[in-house]
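agent> fetching stored inputs for the calcium ion docking request
agent> found them:
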Amino acid sequence: MSKYFPNVPNIEYAGPKNRDKFTFKYYNPDEVILGKSMREQLKFSMSYWHTLVAGGTDMFGRDTINKNYGYTDVEAHTVAKAEAGFELMNKLDIDYYCFHDVDIAAEGETLSESFKRLDNITLVLKDLQKEHNKKVLWGTSNLFSNPRYMNGAGTSPSFDVFAYAAAELKKAIEITVELGGSGYVFWGGREGYETLLNTDMGREIEHMAILMRLVVDYARKIGFTGDFYIEPKPKEPMKHQYDFDAATSLNFLRQYDLLGDFKLNIEANHATLAGHSFQHELRVAAINGAFGSVDANQGDLLLGWDTDQFPTNVYDTTLAVLEIIRAGGFTNGGLNFDAKTRRSSSSPEDIFLAYIAGMDSFALGLRLAAKIIEDGFLDEFVKERYSSWDADLGAKTEAGNVSLEDLADYAAANEEPVPSSGRQEYLESTLNQIMFS
Ligand code: XLS
Ligand code: CA
Ligand code: CA
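agent> prediction call returned; pasting tokens
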């Protein structure tokens, strides 16, 4: 099948010395690293929206890349787009994809026209999945682009908008189930506010929780066994979004008793927009038992918005993979490239080169994370740093078996405590040594 990207061959592993642009230098799908194949460790996924739909339009200019796939008629274009996606996944050896409802079939004039289009394309996708052995990592509904959602969807002040969003969610979860998806994402693009002068924040957040509970109950009823995810993001498009970061989202999930069904989908660029590192957000998810899935990209730290660039910073991918492995690795989740080529990377080949760059950067990150784990130095350092908690009163305190008086007596009986050095610079240089030796 080489209909839509005739200039691109199947991308194969050729090793780090190879300079052919259409090869993987580090991603060798079936090579086993830390007990699992790279394919299983990384679970790469294609994002339908950036890859097959977005044409490069920005605030100042129109599309720079043609994504018509040879058709202008809506129905033919919808099918061609899906076929192009499967050709791309085949050539890159990607096993999973993620989609919004409006990515797989453009919205119609009415709800029923939109749903009809979705039903039609779901049949096509189901066949393509079967033929090419591909799976849905997660589905979602776009409840932020249409003007009806300008004040939010689940948090809209209008009940009619809320109900419309519920209808779209119901359909999107049905499609996700039909396509065997193992996840469903809530990214609350417009679920936030511009000014508190017109906003009842408490009521809006309550409404969001009600909607999520209704979706969970319905999805379980129709057989969805996968994970729901909240994808935190602090801002853009809204000035302030309710799912600001991992900690804020976890607080919401706990407050409304949704943690049993939800995990987090952590996106690299959203983490940095929230003033955190990617690794920080992954760690917060993991220590709360809510590590689920990852949207991989990188931002430009000189810009204040979501640039969704393909990840190439190997320090970041290494430390991210280290967090993912320490969190137990992926179960229902995976690593979705929520990333788009730059506007001036305007040929279809650039999309492949961008995926190769991102996949190789994570593959190299996995190789280096394995070196760090096998070396054991960092783990040992951290273990030693907390070792005073491992026995005697430290251990009793962790187990909840001490009183404040016990601690005060202990402190009084001991000398002034001497804190030990954190040795950050030494650790950083040793990390370099482990990574590059
Ligand atoms: C936007 C989000 C979005 C979600 C899915 O910034 O990353 O693409 O992943 O709605
Ligand atoms: Ca995302
Ligand atoms: Ca994003």
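agent> quick read of the result: Residues 122 and 231 are 24 Å apart (CA to CA).
agent> awaiting further instructions
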